[in-house]
Amino acid sequence: MASNGNNDSFSVAFESNSKWRRNLAELKPELFEKLGKGQSPEILWIGCADSRCPETTILGLQPGDIFCHRNIANILVPTDLNSLSVIQYAVQYLKVKHIIVCGHTSCGGIAAALANKKLGLIDTWLMPLRHLRQQNLKMLEELPEKERGLKMVDLNVRRSVSVLLENPVVIDAMVERGMQVHGVIYDVGSGELNELDITEDDELVAERQKAFKVAE
């Protein structure tokens, strides 16, 4: 069978795996044996499926360091069983110490939500972004195009953080063992990671806990 671009790409990736495995085994000879026995990551990463945003590479960490969930435009909604399952497993069973929600510059999902293009099934997934745009329409339309996209990335991360903070499992972990939630934005053009200020006053935190915390 004649090779094509896809087969060539796969072959390169497969060869790279062999080199990566050998190099890592030399640098950290105990790592694969340790990973074979289980995982104990301290970070849950919730990010975008974009190929330019590999969480372990961005953070300079190793296999086993990060439990992750990625989807188009790092959207979190309180009814998505996929993300809810990941969050519960990471928080309740793996006992992660940090949850990071990461948005990024030049996000195709953000651009699609701002452009009103018909995309089919993806339109349904992007609905939370369109709602977010509607809620902030006047402010967004007053911004230049590039800043508009960046602002939507910011708003989207903050919205996903809010969804996390309303999750009873997350609330319990924050109260009982000090787990922390972070919102960050990754610049794909520079590799820089910037943390958003998501600090809240004690009254708001108490009100949220009263509204969303559930008893067994």
TrEMBL record:
Required cofactor names: Zn(2+)
Keyword line: Lyase, Metal-binding, Zinc
Cofactor note: Binds 1 zinc ion per subunit.
Single GO biological process annotation from the record: carbon utilization
GO CC aspect terms: cytoplasm
Keyword DNA repair found: no
Residues reported to bind Zn(2+): 48, 50, 104, 107
Matches recorded under PROSITE patterns: PROK_CO2_ANHYDRASE_2 (PS00705)
One Pfam family cited in the UniProt record for this chain: Pro_CA
Reaction catalysis annotation: hydrogencarbonate + H(+) = CO2 + H2O
Top-level taxon: Eukaryota
GO function terms (MF aspect): carbonate dehydratase activity; zinc ion binding
E.C. numbers: 4.2.1.1
Enzyme superclass (EC): lyase
Gene3D superfamilies linked: Carbonic anhydrase
Listed SMART domains: Pro_CA (SM00947)
Family, as annotated: Belongs to the beta-class carbonic anhydrase family.
Name the UniProt record assigns to this protein: Carbonic anhydrase
Organism, scientific name: Lithohypha guttulata
